[in-house]
Design goal:
The chain is mainly beta and 111 residues long. It contains no helices and 11 strands.
Length: 111
Amino acid sequence: QVQLVESGGGLVQPGGSLRLSCAASGSIFSIYAMGWYRQAPGKQRELVAHIDSDGDKIYANSVKGRFTISRDNAKNTVYLQMNSLKPEDTAVYYCNAAGGWGQGTQVTVSS
């Protein structure tokens, strides 16, 4: 099973930006579809963005135009660039691939 480690979360003011990273173990990273999910307190975990092995992407409607998912297969890493952050983006963000989950990274958007 692939091992995933997220980083890059933190506290940011509304309108600010953050970039999350998810580093994956294994030598066949390039064949995995990768996803970023988030879970806010009291809410279910939801898909934020997804990128498949061909680079095709999908986004939740709530983040379209603000978030960008990308991957670097040479570094076994997937990224989530988050711009124009809103308080409702506050959540723990998780990376997902091949049935595995990272430990999550907290993103807090607050003034």
